[in-house]
Design a protein that fits this description.
Shikimate kinase; alpha/beta; 5 strands; binds adenosine-5'-diphosphate; Rossmann fold; five-stranded parallel sheet; binds shikimate-3-phosphate; ATP binding; binds magnesium ion
Amino acid sequence: MSPRYVVLGPPGAGKTTVGQLLAERLGVSFRDTDEDVVASAGKSISDIFLDDGEPAFRALEEAAVETGLAEHHGVLALGGGAVLSATTRRRLAGHPVVFLNVGTAEGVRRTGLSTARPLLAGVNPRSTFKALLDARLPLYREVAAIEVSTDALEPEQVVAAVLAHGAASG
Ligand SMILES: Nc1ncnc2c1ncn2[C@@H]1O[C@H](COP(=O)(O)OP(=O)(O)O)[C@@H](O)[C@H]1O
Ligand SMILES: O=C(O)C1=C[C@@H](OP(=O)(O)O)[C@@H](O)[C@H](O)C1
Ligand SMILES: [Mg+2]
């Protein structure tokens, strides 16, 4: 069995927030691979990047996505960079994948006050975010069946848009 929805997209798109609401709405459980990675490493994402480096984080993330896809039947949110793995992109085939999109200005605004995302912690989060988005957009689109632009929507409206897509396609 597959997750009901797999939610992905850049940092600040609302994967965690909207994923939780979507799970509530559907009466299913919510799981976030970032949390699974933190649990398996026994430390925060920032500390994994600092102590062990990004490749170590990506390896833990790839394993967390594999387990989540195999075990979880509710809503599964991925970290923003999970699609960088070709293995993960292959594993996502056939799953109901939702791409939550957000533009640079709004994405930076939503993530700006948090220090929890080491990739955006540099001197110029705006250009970092834009570069990240440019590199990843084709990858999100490669694996997703549904895309929702979240810039002008409240989380509840994003949930409604996702469910409307589901209703339209099935
Ligand atoms: N549609 C939205 N409108 C306004 N703020 C949002 C929206 N979605 C998420 N947020 C806010 O943006 C921040 C990042 O959301 P989060 O769910 O952690 O994103 P992600 O998991 O995709 O990185 C949080 O403070 C959250 O409340
Ligand atoms: O975009 C990325 O590469 C990352 C996004 C984060 O998750 P969110 O997208 O939930 O912020 C987290 O996995 C890590 O900081 C790396
Ligand atoms: Mg998240």
